[in-house]
Design brief:
alpha/beta; Rossmann fold; seven-stranded parallel β-sheet; globular
């Protein structure tokens, strides 16, 4: 037996530096993360008896997140444009609590919120202040989940500026405004969750408005976390495909919903798994969550270390995209 062990040791010993270097880098990064002041130094986030406000909660990931927070004892305030869907969601939350015996003393509540209608800080203040009165103590939003979103399909050449602005209004300006107006109501031991996208790090063809908006929201919250409240947890999610029906609601170049789901989207993560993963990362005081398969993660590295190769790969991918520019032959 010892002969076999010694044989394996002699066989694999020359290769130990190849494993030691990445393991050492990983260990050093974890040590630095623990030593550096910031959210990671705080105790785990206990969601029981905390107030959580979710935008875009009527469908998809926002809806699944409401269940995750509610079963952990939080008071959830769900917002979206569809009051019927929000009312049904709250009824289902209460029914699930009764069925599964969740220990939650708080009634879920809902309110109408359209990020494109908020305007500026002055016009939106009353509506956002009304949301704060729904909190457990009438003023504190412990966790803000910026989840509402809109996508699009179309080439840079064909997509009208109106569509570019519409997507940016929802995915960027709306969340910036809600965050600004609620920032003083979020305690230092609270958190902000930003549901971004892998496209906030690597843009892909025929999704220009969506990719641009996700790059913008990533940049805003990177700036915010580096300003005067470095201990406030800001968790940004760089998600790959999630099976939410999001693609079917994407706008085409004429401003109409696609009505057909992307094949990649249907093969994506389930909303239940994605919501559970996000909440676990939040509880563990993470600040970045890359929620995508390994092959998609490679694209981020290529963007910095071999960008021309990545751009060529994305171009080849775009050759099979059904939303290629109608002007390319002109």
């Amino acid at each position: 037996m010892s002969h076999v062990v010694h044989h394996h040791i002699r066989h694999y010993l020359p290769y130990w530096p190849y494993a030691a270097i990445p393991l050492g880098v990983y260990g050093l990064s974890k040590l630095l993360s623990w030593l550096i002041p910031g959210p990671k130094r705080q105790s785990s986030l206990n969601l029981k008896d905390k107030t959580v406000l979710i935008t875009g909660a009527s469908t998809g990931l926002g809806r699944a997140l409401a269940f995750e927070f509610y079963k952990r004892g939080a008071k959830v305030i769900v917002t979206a444009r569809s009051l019927d869907k929000l009312s049904q969601l709250c009824a289902e939350l209460e029914a699930a609590k009764a069925e599964f015996g969740w220990a939650n003393n708080h009634e879920p509540v809902y309110r109408y919120l359209d990020l494109t209608e908020l305007g500026d800080e002055v016009s939106a203040k009353q509506q956002i202040d009304d949301l704060k009165t729904l909190a457990i103590d009438g003023k504190t939003i412990d966790v803000l989940v910026n989840n509402a979103g809109m996508s699009m399909r179309g080439s840079c050449a064909d997509t009208p500026l109106k569509i570019q602005r519409q997507v940016m209004e929802v995915n960027y300006f709306g969340h910036v405004l809600v965050t600004k107006l609620l920032l003083d109501s979020i305690p230092d031991n609270g958190a902000i969750v930003v549901v971004g996208s892998l496209q906030g790090k690597v843009a892909i063809p025929y999704r220009s408005a969506y990719s641009a908006s996700k790059h913008a929201i990533q940049a805003f919250f990177d700036s915010l976390r580096a300003e005067d409240r470095p201990n406030l947890q800001i968790l940004t999610i760089s998600a790959g495909y999630i099976n939410t029906g999001f693609g079917s609601r994407a706008l085409n170049t004429e401003g109409r919903q696609m009505g057909v789901e992307d094949e990649n989207q249907t093969k994506g993560l389930s909303v239940e798994y994605a919501a559970s993963t996000i909440v676990k990362a939040l509880i563990c005081r993470e600040t970045e969550l890359l929620m995508a398969p390994f092959m998609l993660r490679i694209a981020i590295g290529l963007r910095y270390f071999c960008p021309n190769f990545l751009f060529w790969m994305l171009h080849k991918r775009g050759q099979n995209d059904p939303h290629q520019s109608s002007k390319k032959d002109h």
